[in-house]
Amino acid sequence: MLLVPSLALAQSTISGTVSESENGFPLPGVNVIISGSSSGTTTDFYGKYQLTANNGDVLVFSYVGYTSQEVIFAGQAVLDVQLSEDASALDEIVLIGYGGVKKEDLTGAVDLITAKDFNQGPIVSAQQLISGKIAGVSVTSGSGAPGDGQTIRIRGNGSLGLSSNPLIVLDGIPLNDGGVGGSRNPLNLINPNDIESMVVLKDASATAIYGSRGANGVIIITSKKGKEGGFKFNINASTTIHTAIDQVDVLSTEEFVGVINSTGDTAYTDLLGASDTNWQDEIYKDATGKDFSFSALGSAFGVPMRASLGYTDHDGILRTDNFQRTTGSLNFSPSFLKEQLKVEVNLRGSVAKNTFADRGAIGSAVSFDPTQSPYDAGSQYGGYFAWIDAGTGNQSNLAQTNPLALLNLRNDTSQVDRFIANIKVDYNLPFVEGLKATFNLGHDSSMSDGVTLVSDLIPTSDSTFNGSKNTYNQEATNQLLDVYLTYITSFNDAHNLTAVAGHSYQAFEFDNTSYDSEAEEDGNDFEFIDRSKNVLLSYFTRLNYDYQGKYLLTATLRADASSKLNPDDRWGYFPSLAAAWNLHKEGFMSDSFFDELKLRAGYGEVGNVNGLGDYRFLTQYVGSQSTANYQFGSSFYQTYRPEPINTELRWEIGRTTNIGLDYAILDGKLSGSVNAYMKETKNLIASSSVDPFTNFGNRIDANIGDMENKGIELSFDYTPIQNENFKWSINYNISFNDNKVTRLPFDQAVGGISGGVGNNIQTHNEGQTPYSFLVYQQVYDASGAAIEGVYVDRNGDDIINDDDRYIKESPFADVIMGFNTNLKYKNWDLSVISRANFGNYAYNNVASNAVFSQAIGNSGGFLRNIHSDYLYTGFMDYTETSLLSDHYVQEASFFKIDNITLGYTLKDAYKDTDIRFYGSAQNVLTVTNYEGLDPEIYGGIDNNFYPRPRSFVFGVNIDF
Amino acid sequence: MKNIFKKLVFGLAITSIIVSCHDDLNQSPIDPDSFTEEDVFATPEQAKGALAKLYSSLALTGQQGPAGQPDIAGIDEGFSQFSRMLFNLNEITTDHAVVGWGDPGLPDLHGMYWSSSNDFTEAMYYRLAQEVSFCNSFITNATNLNDTSVESYIAEARFLRAYAYYNLIDLYGSVPLITTVSTDLPQQSSRSEIFNFIETELLEIENSLPGSGGNEFGRVDQVAAWALLSRLYLNADVWIGQSKYSEAATYSGNVISSSYSINSNDANGNGTAYDELFLADNDTNGAQNEFIFALNFDGLQSQTYGGTTFLIHAAIGGSMNATDFGVNGGWGGLRTTKNLVNQFAVDIDAQNMALGSISDWGLVGDATTNGWDGPDMEMYQTAPDQYAIYAELNSGEIKFRFNEDWGNNYGDDGADGSIEAGGANIAVSSAGTYYITLDIGSLTYTIAPYTSDKRGMFYSDGQNLEIESIPSFENGYAVTKFKNVDSNGNQGVDSGGDFTDTDLPLIRLAEIYLNYAEAVVRGGNGDLSLAVSKINELRQRAFGSTSGDITSSDLDLEFILNERSKELYWEGLRRTDLIRFNKFTSGSYLWPFKGDVEIGASVSDFRNVFPIPNNVISVNPNLTQNEGY
Predict the structure, then answer these.
(1) Beta-bridge partners for A438
(2) Helix or strand or coil: residue A609?
(3) How far is B466 from chain A (nearest CA, A)?
(4) What ipTM does the predicted assembly reach?
(5) Is there a contact between A333 and A226 (Cβ–Cβ < 8 Å)?
(6) Residue A275 backbone class (left: φ over 0; alpha: ψ -120 to 50; beta: rest)
(7) Taking chain B (629 residues) in consecutive chunks of 10 residues, what is each chunk's mean pLDDT?
(8) A623 and B318 in contact by Cβ < 8 A?
(9) Measured between CA atoms, how close is B449 to chain A, in angstroms?
(10) Which residue among A505, A532, A759 sits closest to B104, beta carbon to beta carbon?
């Protein structure tokens, strides 16, 4: 409490500038008020303010995200104030779904990452922004193709048969989880530069407000919005070079010739060519990319607004692969009725153009005979070498197709247009103080058009092939209506209460059509339609209560009904309760070295039907296509098949208990959190066997088992040095996760591999990690070489059959770490992002196909190259058992440096214009013992992986 | 007041939105390929599409064709086709076939070491149980139609259900007997209960089915019921321990007296009317008159990776020319053992004597018995300047020589079929019996593998009769029985050569002839001379003459088993036959790699039935696993 001398009443005018302490930029919109009075003002665009005050008045300068400053007015005419960014940002409002809370009032396991902490470098997809940043969150790219999908897992796999993807909420709109046809990544619609912050809700006490959609965690993405004040502009342009860094280790030409010659059989040696072709060199190239974005934010006609444009154009390192995207967004946030009615309009559109290289070329290049030249002037196939079957005169039907022909004679393109719009209205209801009504109407639609043209010159065994054209057209729409009331009140200056209650309606519909020119030529059905719709209806309520900011309580309840479930089991009720205790606010802690210390505990339940097909509880018949009709008399009849049915499908339910601790010490220089969680998924929905006499199929989606994920997450943010010239910050996070199927009445084979037909390498077994490898135990001779066809008879019945397979490890890491550091020295900045995974295994499917009979093309009149693992095993033939040998399941732990970025900022290069130049290297280093191309393969089956390139970026970022 | 009004409007607006949303939870399919039960069973004509599914689920694998929307989940769709699995379980497990592929569970079948989680025994169980469920549902819904025009449909569905149970009792022994669709976990029924059910059903529908030849192409009539009864009774001793050979003879006799007839039309003029049964036009070339129950395939409209598409593609490999078979390439998988090939071995001396008188022209070379030094294998003069010989040769080379003298020898420069004095050696790529002709007038010759019984259709060029290891294609002769060319040599309708038109008989008259003979020889009431004459009918078609005729003294059980092998190989009956003759698991009859041993070995008797799939047992605790598994 400041004592104000009562006599000093001399009133005078004060003015000044408020700026950022770090870089001296003026701060517009800063609130300047006189404590205890109603008078005050805000700074203008140039950070200037003016007001009248009395001597001894306390001036409070506050701005969101910055530490407030209080200054006692002592009659000075000019008072310049510098605000520094709030290190602990305790006042930051964190969105938690249907509203937000101050960070210090959070009760759940929630992480917030804002733009300043995002990963740098050639970021094409929004998911990459947070890779390695958050304990318990793993982001794995599907491949090295530009714009390709990323798999996000929050605290491991949550389901077996349903989607384990987190819910993504963009500006209040929960997005469609399903892939969009012809799209590489559903999040490609967002220009990463438009994102202001991402909030990750990890535990069920936090996600329960999203009910059935929050089963696997929630990522709330908030885009940048317009602000009061004059316009500010940003231009970001960069150019990238991608290079391939590694190749699959196949036999060299010399080794290959040696293997073929060792047969001494002219049937094979006569097939050898005279060339020395590295087919992998032929299909990969150095690729370039460019990114450009422009944004403007400010306020026009009194309406805050932001507009942005982005353009991305990247080639893939696989020849002919290209991804182009244009994005645009517009945001208005006008207020009416003296700020009592706030409207927010977001319009966002993107046009992505893909040219898909035929990825079959990757496998084909790995296994194409290196003694053949890519080109053959006499070839009937456009000059591309092909293996010809002497009988038919066409390409042998089991030979692989020249990879260059696959790349150059196929043209596979798509355009995906996506449009997301929402209008959100907040109205402070005049008749009850503190009561606000919110109405949010959203629309998310994507339309994709794709065409695949195959030249008639492509090598094929089909003698009458005269080219083909396949087109598809997919439309997915998602409509949203949220209506909710928020009531905020406090009483006795100590009890604070926020209550939210509302209703949400979402409808998802897709409509796909495709066309097949070959079917048309054959006189069969050539247009195919696929359509479906489901609706999700919800009521939700949440109560946040705190006593003096010390004791916090959050309770939520959501009721969801999905049209996917039968009317009797349709409604699911998902409650949660969480409590937190801000210990540092207690008197007895006032002398402790903790600047912040908060204990949290929460429990929540969420449902899941994401990824479940529609109408599973209804009796349906599927009509046959005209290629599957049946002849009676002289006519072919369309047949009707009754579909497998499950009238008893219920919600899959996840129950999470989370205990956490948030701390900050050393004046906030070291902060972080610790979480321990236990998530049980009950009534897992998965494709499950049924007694086939009781249904119309052998598998139905049914609630069959239980699973658990338990783990510990730790994160540390440390800023060892922070002064005017030098700032160094470190972020380290580590998470341990243990995932087990705890109840499953029967084993489920999963993880299809190539080689043979119908081989599965993985299994879901009770008591084991899902997707564990199920393999035969290879026997090795005294010299350590694998003995072909000899396995350990583990059950001792003198027969080696599938009863002898055993569980060996899983593709999921036991420990995931992220380590990031940022250095700023004067105008220089440097950031390094690295990650490590431990205890993850991969099945090397390229090596497992390396057997002699493959090299000689199974006597089919052609040759094939094989993986050099053959030089070690010398296996002659592959069989079910050799493919499933534990020899090919290898540890794939790794440490990766994902990114190093170095930047230099030229301040005030020209009139309030800052220019930052930066260079960045992506995918810098991988340390691993794994023998395949890349240890980081989601799902753990390494086969013809599109290699992740190393990328070098040079860019410039201009603020003015 | 104004405020209250505002509140009211606000409240009403929200309420009405929410209420209208609730109705939206009741979604029904909007896909144009999706139908409700009311749609499908709206009229008898409409219901015919559901009947067609009962047939097509044995021929095809899903609703998309050749792959997509599969009927059976969890297995490669092409593998899940009924007749392909029947081949895997009833032919590959025997001396009739080996397959080189290493797909999970597949090598286990010929090696006879399958486990209770074998993919194929499991998928077959699913396929047959699903057929039962489809039929049960169809019978209920069609009965509710209350329309006399669907009576035959219902009888056909009951036939197909009985056929499914016939396979279940044969392959798995005791399984649940289910006649209505219910989600209650079923109990296992004994083999005799299932036997009685099949028997009763077939006897009951005998007269609801159209009379012999009275149904449209592709659908069964009452003869099919009799034929299936004949099979059922023939195996009664194995399955329920009761001999029913007289019943087997009776129902075989009914079939024999029906309008069905053995195809005698040698449409392609190659000397026998047997191969027409397995050509692309076997729905029109006369073969259809012999087919009592067949699966219809069409290269464009009924596509699958099973069926004859599998039988034809999979049997092509090595140096075989796929275009000769009307397809675009081989899959290099199936071959046969020497046991089957040797069934067709001929009495060469007698054949040679019949050619004409012995001459001084002869064969010399390391492919002949005496090598390059002679003496030569003398040829027989069939006409002036025309010589011929049936000769057993090794792989190697030959030349023609006159009077054991190199002064007058002929070889073939350029391997063009014309001979030159002192020309190059003629290659004999593999050991076997050959028919060789020499025309010393036009200086031409022919050399071709020879069997007198034309049912033996093998490809031996580059193939070894002996099997040293199963995976690589050159081990064992290839089988050329099934082709996707019609009687004029034209490829089937799929111009791409992927999918075949050739229909596949599941029951054909020739088998019933053999059933009749076996029933009579095993002591059933019947006419032995009728049996002999029917067997001779088959043999005359096979030999193209009466040279292979037998008399009643030749007709014993051993003869019948061999005759069934020769007439019906690769048609899905062999395992059942061997079990009936106690030769499937026992050491009394061996073939290469029986019991996973190169020279063959017996296996435990429990392998006479396949295991109930593990996955089924784990979801239905009422079921007991077959002994031994």
Answers:
(1) A426, A484
(2) coil
(3) 18
(4) 0.87
(5) yes
(6) beta
(7) 60 64 82 88 93 97 93 91 98 96 89 91 96 97 91 96 98 96 93 97 96 94 98 97 97 97 92 94 95 96 96 94 93 95 84 87 91 89 92 90 90 89 88 87 87 88 91 92 96 94 97 98 96 96 86 94 97 98 96 95 96 90 93
(8) no
(9) 20
(10) A759
